[in-house]
Write a structure and sequence with these properties.
The protein starts with a strand and ends with a helix. It has 11 helices and 13 strands.
C-alpha cells in the first residue's frame, strides 16, 4: 500500500509551535510508517519525517510573510497530483482546494475534514461528495449534506505527555489561540470572578481582541500571558495546572488541547459545544458547562475529578496508535483489501 499524504503548508510538518493540522498529519504519517505503510509526505521542505518527503515549498508561508500563500498552495497541491498515479491513495489533509484536482485522477482521494471554516466552502465538498471519501474528526462536525466513510478522532503521542498525579501549580490554564471563538475573554472573566490565577498560552490570532479583552487585565500572579508554548514547555505547563478551562463560543470540531491536558492528568472544564461531549466524560474527566456561571460552579468541584481517569481515557480513545489503526481500516476498505 502506497500512500501520498498531502499536508498543509502554513507551517512546517510537524509545527514548531502552533499548527494543529500539520501536527495531526505528522503524527499519522509517522505512525503509518511504523506500521510498515509506504508513505510519501508532501509538505514544506523543512519538514521532519521518516516517510519520503516531497516538497516544492521551502517553508511555511505563516513563517515567511514574504511568500504568497495562494501561489505556493497551488504549486504544492499540483505537485502531489502530478504524481497521483504512483500511489494507491492520496490522503488529503489540506481542506477543500485539493478536491478540485480529484476528478483528474483515478487514484482514490481520502479527505480528512478538519472542520468547516465557513458554510461558503461547502459547495466544493458537495460537488465531490460521490467521487471522494470524507473522514470527519468528530460526529459533531458532520454535515448532513455529505457522506462519510468514518469518524476518526485525532490521536496524540502519549509518550510526549507526562502523567502528573500531583500538580505543583496553583493555576488554571487557558491553552489555545487568542480569539473570541476560543473564549479567552470568558476565561479571564471566570478567573477574576473566582480569584484564581490564570495562565494564558497561545498565539494571538486577533490583536484587537487581545488588546481589548485580555491585555488590560494582565497582572503577574493573577492573569498572565506567556505566549505560544512549544514542546519544551508544554508538558510541564499542562501537567502542573489544576485544570484547563475551555470556554469556547463555537462548535469546535475537535480540541487537541483537551486531549493533551487530560493525557497529563489535568481535567477540563469546557463549554458544552461541538465535539466537547465526545472528548470529555462529564463528571469523570472534567465537566461540561452551558455558560460562565455553570463553569464557575463546576471549577469549584474540580478536585473531585480523578486525574488517573483523565490519563486512562486518552490512552484508550485518543492515542496516535488508535488513530492510525482506524485510518488503515479506511484505506483497506477503499482498496477492498
Amino acid at each position: 500500500m502506497k500512500i501520498a499524504m498531502l499536508s498543509p503548508i502554513a507551517w512546517r510538518t510537524p509545527p514548531v509551535h502552533y499548527g494543529p493540522w500539520e501536527l495531526v498529519t505528522s503524527l499519522l504519517t509517522e505512525e503509518l510508517v511504523r506500521n510498515g505503510i509506504d508513505v510519501t509526505l508532501f509538505a514544506t521542505g523543512n519538514s521532519m519525517t521518516h516517510a519520503r518527503l516531497q516538497s516544492v515549498c521551502p517553508r511555511g508561508y505563516e513563517e515567511d510573510r514574504e511568500m504568497d500563500a495562494k501561489v505556493w498552495e497551488c504549486l504544492h497541491i499540483s505537485h502531489c497530483f502530478d504524481h497521483a498515479g504512483e500511489y494507491d491513495i492520496i490522503h488529503n489533509q489540506f481542506d477543500f482546494l485539493p478536491l478540485t484536482y480529484s476528478g483528474l485522477t483515478n487514484t482514490p482521494v481520502v479527505t480528512t475534514i478538519h472542520g468547516f471554516s465557513s458554510s461558503r466552502i461547502l459547495p466544493v465538498y458537495k460537488k465531490y461528495n460521490r467521487h471522494t471519501h470524507y473522514v470527519s474528526i468528530s460526529d459533531a462536525d458532520r454535515s448532513p449534506e455529505l457522506d462519510y466513510i468514518a469518524t476518526i478522532h485525532h490521536g496524540i503521542d502519549t509518550t510526549h505527555f507526562t502523567f502528573n498525579p500531583n500538580p505543583a501549580g496553583d493555576y488554571m490554564l487557558y491553552y489555545g489561540r487568542i480569539h473570541r471563538d476560543k473564549g479567552t475573554k470568558e476565561a479571564v472573566e471566570i478567573a477574576r470572578a473566582l480569584d484564581i490565577r490564570l495562565v494564558i498560552a497561545g498565539i494571538i490570532q486577533d490583536e484587537v481582541y487581545f488588546n481589548t479583552c485580555v491585555k488590560p487585565f494582565l497582572k503577574e500572579g493573577k492573569i498572565e500571558y506567556i505566549g505560544s508554548v512549544g514542546d519544551d514547555r508544554r508538558d510541564a505547563l499542562l501537567g502542573n495546572a489544576r485544570l484547563l478551562v475551555h470556554p469556547i463560543s463555537f462548535s469546535e470540531p475537535f480540541g487537541l488541547s483537551i486531549v493533551e491536558a487530560m493525557a497529563c492528568g489535568t481535567p477540563v472544564v469546557a463549554f458544552n459545544k461541538g465535539s466537547m461531549p465526545e472528548l470529555i466524560r462529564d463528571g469523570e474527566t472534567g465537566f461540561l458547562a452551558e455558560n460562565k456561571e455553570e463553569a464557575m460552579e463546576k471549577i469549584k468541584r474540580i478536585d473531585s475529578i480523578n486525574r488517573h481517569s483523565c490519563r486512562t481515557d486518552v490512552e484508550q480513545h485518543f492515542s496516535k496508535e488508535i488513530m492510525a489503526r482506524r485510518y488503515i481500516e479506511v484505506y483497506r476498505k477503499i482498496l477492498k483489501m
